[in-house]
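step: validate -> pass
step: tokenize input -> pass
step: predict -> running
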Amino acid sequence: MTAPARRRELATEFLALARARHARYLTDLAELVSIDSGSYHADGVNEVADWVQHRLHRLGFAVDRIRPAAPAQGPGSGDVLVARKRGALRESDGGRRILLAGHMDTVFDVGTAAARPFTLDGRTAHGPGVSDDKGGLLAGLTALEVLDEHGVDGYQELVFLATPDEEIGSPAARAVIEETALGVHYGLGLECARENGDLVIVRKGVADFRLTVTGRAAHAGIEPERGANAALEAAHLTVAIQSLNGRWDGVTVNVGVVRAGSRANIVCPRAELRVEVRATTVAGIRHARQALHEAAGRPTVPGTTVEVEQLDLCPPMEDTPAARRMLDTAQRAAAALGITLGAAATGGVGDANLIAGAGVPVLDGLGPVGGADHTPQEWLDTSSVPPRVALLAALITALGNAGPAHTAPGDACPAR
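step: predict -> pass
step: emit ->
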């Protein structure tokens, strides 16, 4: 049987299995959405983790629950869940390690699930986290069930990662994410698809900076000439930094916070700027960082100095040749399902950024179609669930077995 014919056969079988689970998917989704699991509500996040862990145990995964250390200030997070299942192939046989990543937290406060419960209007579901990311998390689990029932084990290892604090940048889970990604061949993000069904092949990285301007205080009425106005220098810097927008493709720079002075009758001795840089490539962040240092080294106001500190960095999920090969495999799997699949870039960040930062090629947006994330209007198109589950199962199958050295990803057909 030719590879395209085999793909069509597998797609039909996976789709039938996904459709058979659709009613249960909706019941499970309603249950997950009814759990308040905001990023700062550790008990709620862990209730979701208990639910996910139970499902994974039933599928034969070995599950680790990792409780990150609580920060010096603020509440602790829920647990990070890392589950693993060995396949039938060794790496030397072409077996590949595939990481599926979703998150258990939402942006909503405790009480939101009761105030705005899960609803289903025709094929459209609403509720807190229905799209971001409980719908995608559940789609990943359902795809694993489809593979298990079909008997697919043509891979080296499947790793399922569920994080507790993605909505706030994964400060607690980051080290676990990066460690889990080491040695993985492919990363698949379970965030929901774009509204038109596109996958995500690019997520901008984010670098946060603090620029501290030091001037010299003086009486503003009697001897202002003895002062060096840090607020004025901050204003010049703001204009200069904002003008960096448009200099490099895929790079945006924003002065989001400016603080200066304490009294109107004192020449301002100190000011602070908080600057965010977003870029589609590591090189773009590097260019912007260099430009910030150059601007800081040329103060306009005599007597002022500027210090630049980088406070944080979330690496970009770049559009790489390896990611394009994954996309090609996904598009061939989608074509077998009658789906035309595109790829999009987004300025939003997620756990996929951290996986990509570990050197792993990543595709994101492999969950069902949804939108209006982080709002009361958040929605999920439930009719998209069976085909997206089947697509995810087909993609895992294609990527899991690299086959002979001359075989392109997706052309190998696992034994049944």
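step: describe -> The domain at 3-203+316-400 is CATH 3.40.630.10 (Aminopeptidase).
step: cleanup -> pass
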